[in-house]
Amino acid sequence: MRSHIATKGTARAPHRSLFKAMGYTDREISQPLIGIANSANELIPGHMHLDNIVKAVKSGISMAGGTPMEFSTIGICDGIAMNHKGMHYSLASRELIADSIEVTAMAHPFDAIVMVPNCDKIVPGMLMAAARLNIPAIFISGGPMLSGKHPDNNDKKIDLITVFEAVGAVKSDRMTKDQLLDIENAACPTCGSCAGMFTANSMNCLTEAIGMALPGNGTIPEPMSERIRLAKQTGMQIMELLNKDITPDKIMTKDAFMNSLVVDMALGCSTNTVLHLKAIANEAHVDMDLELINEVSKKTPHLCALSPGGEDRIEDLNSAGGIMAVMKELFDHDMIHADCLTATGKTMGQNLEIVIKKDQQVIRPVENPYHRQGGLAVLFGNLAKDGCVVKQSAVLDAMMKHQGPARVFNSEEEATEAILGNQINKGDVIVIRYEGPAGGPGMREMLTPTSAIAGMGLDETCALITDGRFSGGSKGASIGHISPEAADGGLIAIVEENDQIKIDIPAKTIALLVDEEQIANRFSKWKKPEPKIKTGYLARYARMVSSAGNGAIFTCDPCG
């Protein structure tokens, strides 16, 4: 066993002595050592209960003859970090999480590992670590929170995005502050990852689709005891993966990533999944070109209308049969690679044999989808030579094609102030730049401006483009990940006020309608701005990070 380098033989007596200092017995030391990466903390609603999940995982490991060994890693709540300096650190935390798990699992040679994440960057960070370590690994998330009930209509479900949009409604005098407070108090009624198909739940669902978690991981709500039972089963299952030597490279194959993309399109997941899947694929040594997104999206119908693109929540998807039911519908129409090995120890096809599709309103049949194409689209053009991403399933029909004057802002704060200050006109294309991976630094999410636009009713006429990114809760013609970014000399850097910008989502194009001579003249005068943050981790991050088109992964020497 891998752990024997620290536990077996006469020379390892000092090592065993240290294990015994922690209370481990000779029997426990001789058994397989199973690491548990626990991202529990008191900072994130989706993580405040993870100690209970880990307790159940430990029970499962012990029941199956292993020795559980828990360690911690960090986590950031994107909602709480939103729209201030803290959001610079969110995406950047993904690399720290992956690195910290790698460091721990190499210094303490576990035989296998269980990952316990729940929220936005923690899930992909742990998946990156699993691929990098390539020892038997399995995931169990903390589960989604339940949706809230609208204070004025208990039949209407609400969630965190309702609160963000209510702020815009107050600013435009469409709602009172007292009504906002009532919504604020009702929107997030339990702990867990936020209730819609935002980034956290998108990644938890795709972890199941790619085969690295047991069925139910993505959708069983946090308050349900079924989640605890699943955690125990996960603890037991890691021992089977160890015994059969089923490592992540045998699960996270090219076909498995294709399965995850198909499910992504059917669900209408967050645009952030593009960043994360590319980063995870890179660690798994799988090539995933951005053009592949459009190829898959063109062939895959959008089957689920989940918030923010619809009224259903994750609890509804769970009741309808969860991710396995979505995959069963896709499998029945030859859209899933059935021979992919999964964390169950069986192939995806074997997993799907027993699945029952329970609700054709929540999971529509392929013959009657919400949209004929998948939830995401990648646009290309002179404004985004290396691509940009939009959640097309959450765009109003009237905004699928749009041309309008640019309103240019060099930070999210400037744009938010203008939006909330009623300085945006119908038809405008809001441009927010210098918010990319290097220029931000950290590629901040922009849920505040997109929610303000929706709350003020501007999503029917205005678009927003940025080299930053969006929350999974963003909706409307919100186009992010513009690559190359402004800080790297992308065309977005020289866009000027009132330039015409043309967006054609069906044609997958985005263009700045300025002639080449004028563009060259502007670039001759452009100078790369000084870094916004010059010290600490983010200064190193800005020097090391690649473009969003490459998944915002580390690619260069930190010394620059």
Description:
The chain has 560 residues and is of the alpha/beta class. The protein contains 22 helices and 14 strands. Helix 6 runs parallel beside helix 7 and helix 7 packs parallel to helix 14. The longest helix is centred in the middle third of the chain and has 19 residues. The model has no long low-confidence stretch (mean pLDDT 95).
Give a short overview:
The chain is of the alpha/beta class and 560 residues long.
- Intertermini distance: 40 Å
Widest sheet: strand order?
7-8-12-11-10-9-13-14
Count the beta strands.
14
User: What is the mean predicted local confidence, pLDDT?
Assistant: 95
Q: How would you sum up the major sheet?
A: 8 strands, mixed
Features:
single chain; 560 residues; alpha/beta; eight-stranded mixed sheet; four-stranded parallel sheet; 22 helices; 39% helix; 13% strand
